[in-house]
Write a structure and sequence with these properties.
The longest helix has 13 residues, at 2-14. Strand 6 (112-117) and strand 7 form a beta hairpin. This protein has a seven-stranded antiparallel beta sheet with strand order 3-4-5-9-8-7-6. A three-stranded antiparallel beta sheet has the order 1-2-10. The chain has three helices and ten strands. By secondary structure, the protein is mostly beta strands. The chain has one domain. It is globular and about 50 Å long.
Length: 178
């Protein structure tokens, strides 16, 4: 009984939890809830599914970890630019939250801009864009969502979150680099 209490106290004090999993990507490891599903995709990308897949949504709730190949084609078929939202298509894209609408036109300026830590000794360009979904005739709708990005150009990592994933920023801040 005393041993169990000591182990439990140790876990609480260190912040380690049995209900987490280690997610490694391009030299960094982040701890995420064990309930999140990690799916490898083409071009070395990883989609971390954190919630349900809605009928109208174009993808399940979650975020993406993208590497060099995805970064190369992340802005209308051109390389990612930190001053623009993530938009890998060269055409009009469906609204992530409601495929009846489109995510174009995209905002010109981010609502949040700065540097954020991703583990010790690494800073990422961090941007948040307020995306407003539009009708086919480009009329704005009430459907909006934030697109949050963390970009580490030296490590060639781009993290894209279009679902306001709770705890993602904190998990990235605690990332461990090898």
């Amino acid at each position: 009984m005393l041993m169990t209490l000591a182990v439990t106290a140790s876990l609480v004090l260190t912040g380690a939890h049995a209900d987490t999993q280690a997610l490694s990507f391009r030299g960094t490891t982040i701890k995420v809830p064990a309930a999140w599903k990690v799916k490898k995709s083409e071009f070395g990308a990883v989609h971390v599914i954190t919630g349900p897949c809605g009928k109208r949504a174009t993808e399940c709730q979650g975020f993406w970890l993208l590497g060099p190949q995805s970064i190369r084609y992340a802005s209308e078929g051109n390389p990612f630019r930190v001053d623009q939202p993530y938009h890998p298509s060269s055409g009009v894209m469906e609204c992530v939250h409601d495929k009846r609408y489109y995510s174009s036109p995209l905002p010109e300026k981010p609502s949040v801009s700065g540097l954020r830590p991703v583990g010790s000794g690494h800073k990422a360009y961090h941007r948040e864009w307020k995306i407003t979904c539009h009708t086919q005739g480009f009329k704005p709708t009430k459907v909006t969502y934030p697109q949050r990005i963390w970009y580490l150009p030296t490590s060639k990592i781009l993290i894209v979150d279009q679902w306001s994933t709770p705890g993602l920023g904190a998990a990235l801040k605690r990332a461990v680099w090898r």
